[in-house]
Design goal:
- It is an enzyme of class 2 (transferase).
- This protein is an alpha/beta fold and about 350 residues long.
- The chain has 2 domains: about 60 residues, DNA polymerase, domain 1, CATH 1.10.150; about 270 residues, TIM Barrel.
- The protein is about 35% helix and about 20% strand.
- It has 12 helices and 14 strands.
- The strands form 3 sheets. Strands 3-4-5-6-9-10-11-12-13-14 form a 10-stranded mixed beta sheet, sandwiched between helices. Strands 1-2 form a two-stranded parallel sheet. A two-stranded antiparallel sheet has the order 7-8.
- Helix 1 packs across helix 2 and helix 5 packs across helix 6.
- It starts with a strand and ends with a helix.
- The mean pLDDT is about 95.
- It binds S-adenosylmethionine and iron/sulfur cluster.
- The site of iron/sulfur cluster has 12 residues, from helix 4.
- Iron/sulfur cluster (SF4) binds next to helix 4.
Length: about 350
């Protein structure tokens, strides 16, 4: 049986091309978009304002393409980590984070990652593949809490700017009138910063931007994040200065505070210098320890002193609450565990 193409993840323009190709009236594309992104159906059969003949014609080569998570882990704090399996058998993680009146879903953009950041479990997995817009959207489409979500953040596995075509396609669908109709203010894309991707994202999307910074010193940032070698934070900041972040779109920086590495006030002072005059905020993040890495999170006292120094010197900073510590909180931990379990199972079958 030939594999069917998912309709999920198709833009209105792409749906128009599909219906035209199948000899259906052009307006059918809008109807399909509404069934997918408004009513969130799980099968083409449910698209009842399409004629039976047209539904059958569509079903020959297409399917909605939604698939439920295969595994979930619940934290005592209400955070839920979902594991999805792609048709190729790869595992990706999404995390549901309820918080007062917000309900955020953290989604993945790739299986693994090429960037190899020292502190990241996904980086340790290496790169397997990039997700399609269908697979990115499916995470939002198929979690049980989908109708209560208030925000989406691209802070799961992978580097979104290394898969920008598919990420932008998913963002279009989430924000377009024919799609989810979400305000771009509800969506944040997090990146290490890749030169080509950064400018394109800023031109083609209105969603919020978060840059993973972790050190204001290029030489140290390079040690933590090899991507610094190709595109330095100093150059990145110069490019960011050309854009207006004072209105709808928010710019934030992510900073994991490592004990004895980047937690002294020398770093805070340098951060203030680096980002002076830029409309932005700083999110200080607690390190989720991962195996075999000689890095440790700093203590809360140092973190508070760091935050206070930044805020007192004009750089608004917050400490991000660490969520789901009891459920393999660091991104990539659950999918790595699943991969290793499967590998072990296969090995035991062989011997
Ligand atoms: C997993 S990344 C995905 C998005 C993008 N690749 C990036 O690096 O911004 C999302 C955020 O998690 C952070 N992160 C990665 N590993 C972490 C860990 N072990 N503990 C805390 N934060 C971590 C990253 O630095 C980044 O700010
Ligand atoms: S932190 Fe982001 S860019 Fe770095 S390895 Fe992890 S997923 Fe990739």
């Amino acid at each position: 049986m030939t594999k069917k193409t998912p309709l999920l993840g198709k833009t209105l323009g792409e749906l128009k091309a599909i219906v035209q190709d199948l000899g259906m009236p052009k307006f059918t594309a809008g109807q399909i978009a509404s069934w997918l992104y408004d009513k969130k159906v799980s099968s083409i059969e449910e698209m009842t304002n399409l004629s039976l003949k047209n539904r059958e014609r569509l079903m020959e080569n297409y399917e909605v393409g939604a698939s439920a998570p295969v595994h979930e882990m619940r934290s005592v704090d209400g955070t839920v980590k979902y594991l999805f399996c792609t048709p190729e058998g790869d595992y990706i993680e999404s995390v549901y984070i309820p918080d007062d009146d917000r309900a955020t879903l953290c989604v993945s953009s790739q299986v693994g990652c090429k960037m190899n950041c020292k502190f990241c479990m996904t980086g340790k997995q290496g790169y397997t593949t990039s997700l399609t817009a269908a697979q990115i959207l499916n995470q939002i489409y198929s979690v049980p809490e989908r109708d209560t979500l208030t925000n989406v953040v691209f802070m799961g596995m992978g580097e979104p700017f290394d898969n920008l075509d598919e990420v932008l396609r998913a963002l279009e669908i989430l924000t377009a009138d024919y799609g989810y109709k979400w305000s771009p203010k509800r969506i944040t894309v997090s990146t290490v910063g890749l030169r080509k991707g950064l400018e394109r994202f800023l031109e083609e999307s209105d969603c919020h931007l978060a840059i993973s910074l972790h050190s204001p010193f290029p030489s140290q940032r390079r040690e933590l994040m090899p991507a610094e070698k190709a595109f330095s934070i100093t150059e990145m900041v110069e490019i960011l200065r050309r854009y207006d972040f004072s209105k709808q779109r928010r710019l934030s920086f992510e900073y994991i505070v490592f004990k004895g590495v980047n937690d002294s006030l020398i770093y805070a002072k340098e951060l203030v210098k680096l980002l002076r005059g830029l409309d932005c905020r700083m999110n200080l993040i607690r390190f989720h320890a991962i195996p075999n890495v000689d890095l440790e999170g700093t203590d809360m006292e140092s973190m508070i002193a760091f935050r206070d120094y930044l805020t007192q010197h004009g750089l608004f900073a917050t400490i991000r609450a660490s969520r789901g510590e009891d459920i393999f909180a660091a991104c990539g931990m659950l999918s790595t565990a699943q991969q290793q379990a499967e590998k072990k199972e296969k090995e035991s079958e062989t011997f």
